[in-house]
Amino acid sequence: MSQREWIEKDFYKDLGVSSSASADEIKKAYRKLARDLHPDANPGDTAAEERFKAVSEANAVLSDPAKRKEYDETRRLFASGGFPGGGSGFQPGSGGFSGGSTFDLGDLFGGGAAGDGGLGDLFGGVFNRGGGAGGAGRSRPRRGADVETETTLDFRDAVLGVTVPLRMTSPAPCTTCHGSGAEPGTSPRVCPRCNGSGIVSRNQGAFGFSEPCDDCRGSGSIIDNPCHDCHGSGVQNRTRTITVRVPAGVKDGSKIRLAGQGEAGLRGAPSGDLFVTVHVRSDKVFGREGDDLTLVLPVSYGELVLGGTVSVPTLEGRVGLKIPPGTADGRVMRVRGRGVAKRGGGSGDLLVTLKVAIPQNLDDKATEALRTYLQAEEAGGFDPREGWAGAR
């Protein structure tokens, strides 16, 4: 894709958001579209697959503050005619600047040569300080775009760690030419016109311009025998399965970065990265507070009054928990080392909240025994509301 094609794409329209949308709005729009358009949800639907690719490409730019800023600034410059052929701006050689000095558009781009940073990187050396062909040095291959995807884990898998397969459809290195773009057994050659820089310079009046080389289309190399599978791009759309190791203790909303697993770069350029957002399902028994696990344990009134040892579930089996006599309802007891693995080593704790379970149906014998107990309790002088709210 040429720089102009990249800039003329409306990534905001692809995501269905305004150009002033916040980062959260962009993230929410992408997540919804990615779920609706994912190839797994639309098997055989080529239109949905193309939309999924467009949405992923748009998110890769707009979710990155630096890329979004460059994208916005560059589109504004093109819309206002700030580049050759971009509108009604100044014309080379028009003498629009006083003093007759040469005005170098490379100054707009932080020094001009591709790879120097700023907007110059965005164009890969479209504008450069004057000189002969190849004056900017060899251009850098274009790195592949970053890709985002999501996975949902069970609570226990997230706490203990798990390896999950992710099925992805995205541009990947061509398996036939291994990303070179050339037919197996052949190799690309250095472009003789630009000497491998990917850009050529020309002077027009008072201005010096650098522009992509027409012979190699800015790549710096020429492929005489393009690969029959990828037609010289070095990239194919492939559905692949990536194995992701999710570390123990990952939290809901965490992102895992897999370097080099994003979209493939053109003609052997480095691949982008893959960012996996992890969602964690809730559990029926366990909750989480930082590195500690929590649970509510039903107990009987007698177990709190008389004390005893009860069996408590953990993520790795059951353990015994000793309840002291006279323990109050709602007390939180700690089982050390049975929580979430910490990044620096060790584990959090399991926090057990004791909650009295009230029987709903008692037989005659149990009912009579309870009445006898209450009478004995009253005779012993116990009043559960003594001193409460002014009770007498």
UniProtKB/TrEMBL annotation:
Residue span(s) of domain CR-type: 161-239
UniProt cross-references to InterPro entries, sorted A to Z: DnaJ, DnaJ_C, DnaJ_domain, DnaJ_domain_CS, HSP40/DnaJ_pept-bd, HSP_DnaJ_Cys-rich_dom, HSP_DnaJ_Cys-rich_dom_sf, J_dom_sf
Keywords annotated in UniProt: Chaperone, Cytoplasm, DNA replication, Metal-binding, Repeat, Stress response, Zinc, Zinc-finger
ZnF bounds (CR-type): 161-239
Binding site for Zn(2+) 1: C174, C177, C227, C230
CXXCXGXG motif repeat locations: 174-181, 191-198, 213-220, 227-234
Cofactor entry: Zn(2+)
Bound cofactor: record note: Binds 2 Zn(2+) ions per monomer.
Binding site for Zn(2+) 2: C191, C194, C213, C216
KW Chaperone (keyword) present: yes
PANTHER family: CHAPERONE PROTEIN DNAJ 1, DNAJ HOMOLOG 1, MITOCHONDRIAL-RELATED
NCBIfam families linked: DnaJ_bact, PRK10767.1, PRK14279.1
Notes concerning its domains: The J domain is necessary and sufficient to stimulate DnaK ATPase activity. Zinc center 1 plays an important role in the autonomous, DnaK-independent chaperone activity of DnaJ. Zinc center 2 is essential for interaction with DnaK and for DnaJ activity.
Oligomeric form and interacting partners: Homodimer.
Family of the protein in this entry: Belongs to the DnaJ family.
The protein, known as: Chaperone protein DnaJ
